[in-house]
Amino acid sequence: MSNKEKLAFKKANYILMLAGIGVLTLGFFIMTIDKEDYGFGFFGITLGPIVVMVGFVLEFFAIFHKSKK
Q1: CA 67 to CA 17: how far, in whole Å?
Q2: If residue 1 lies in a helix (H) or strand (E), which one and from where to where?
Q3: Which one, 12, 13, 19, 40, has the greatest CB density within 10 A?
């Protein structure tokens, strides 16, 4: 058994995980750019959390994704 067969994740999983981390970072950044007091504007209450949830779904998918080979 080669070293690559022992790894838990394939290359596609790691790419999806990095993309998920990027989306999560973007979501948290979007929440910080809100100009309203305490982040109660559109960016802090609506758009940022939606982007963060998409990032978590992408991370979940990256962990459970099985390659076809």
Answers
A1: 14
A2: none
A3: 13
